[in-house]
TrEMBL record:
Record protein name field: Amino acid permease
InterPro entries reported in the protein's UniProt record: APC_K+_Transporter, NA-bd_OB-fold
Alphabetic keyword roster: Membrane, Transmembrane, Transmembrane helix
Entry annotated with the keyword Transmembrane helix: yes
Regions crossing the membrane: 6-27, 58-80, 86-104, 120-140, 146-163
Amino acid sequence: VFGQGMVGTVLFGMLQLASALILYTGANTSFNGFPFLASFVAEDRFLPRQLTKRGHRLVFSNGILVLTALSVVLLVLTGGSVNGLVPFYAIGVFTGFAIAGYGMTRHHLREKEPGWRHKLAVNLSAGVLATVVVGIFAVAKFTEGAWLVVVVFPLLVFVLMRLNREYRAEAAILDRVREHPLDAANYAHHKVFVLVNSADLAVLEALRYGRNLRGTDLTAVHFMIDRMHAERLERRWDELRIRVPLRVIDCPDRRVARAAQKLIAEAASRRGTGVTALLPRRSYTPSLGWLLHDRTADRMARAISQVEHAAATIVPYDVKSKIHEVYPLRPGEERITEAFERFADQLAGESPEQKAFEQPRPPVDAVPITEVHAGTRVTVVGRLHELRLNRTDAHTVLVGELTDATGSLRVEFPERARADIEVGQRLRVTGTAEREDGGLLLREPRYRAVEEQEGE
């Protein structure tokens, strides 16, 4: 089109570059918009809560990763064919148009604001036309990939509605707890069971933790599936001179979680008795952990948590660190894994900009936190890193931690400040410092929010 000369070559290159930029911008739009949209839907409890979490760079990292995975899957399924991707795009776009049209139709029917009939006709027509287009694409392109959307979309709607029902049920239970606050349980007897399958480092750590709970009774329990294994465990228990009694319970049906639940229920059924079940878990490097971990402890904890007056606690133990204390030479697999972990930490690490944001440099008209002394009236400017509500019989106060580039300082605000301040806010605080619990505290100071550029 542009010819074979120098001008034609330049124009052809500019056309290709412009096309690539247009495609890049179009693709980038999805990665900008989908994570935000997914976070809004997740806040309404129709998507997993993980999509509401922001990453180190204050973006919705999980949404970006999900969209990336879905994009790769679509490219693999269609072989990167534009003809194969067009049905997915068209059905997705026009389905959104149809949902928006029907949503606005319902809005007009409910609100009936001035001129609502005209707006109702426009939005209902748009919804119907978009639905017709979706139907045409679904039929015409069914064998070219549209069948996947037709099959997956109803299943996805069902799954998301089921997820929403679970979240709403959980919220209803929390509301019930709020109406009837939980009181601390005072048990006359507190039994602690450590559920063991072998005598190893994780079990020893769980036994040590069990002793620190200071229960009235500490017992190790093994559910016997293999008699020879149980006998070896008893011999090993004696060899290690573990003073905690080992109780072996026959489990002929091999349903360990059910046996654990029955044991805990029997112990908790006694009047005035609370039960804690400790489940040791060994932690390895990520690659070894994927091979060596099973989910027996999770299943047992889930079954035990259903018993009244009982609690299950999984006690993790880092086997790798203990091995390195005795055997400093590490195998090649661990060295490679640690190199990858260090690289990932560097990628997700704290950037100078992030550190400057979280620990701002104090302005010239404020006192650096490290230079605050007890008995002096000071003005400090910093980021509110932490905020907690302390309730006592006498009064209720907000206790916050203010940080700048030099250090941190505790600040005690009145309860009414809850409406004015929030975590992450930059504050200018003026008050008299006093010493309490070995640190400095500003009690009920004057405060105001500070704009990010103020005092820079």
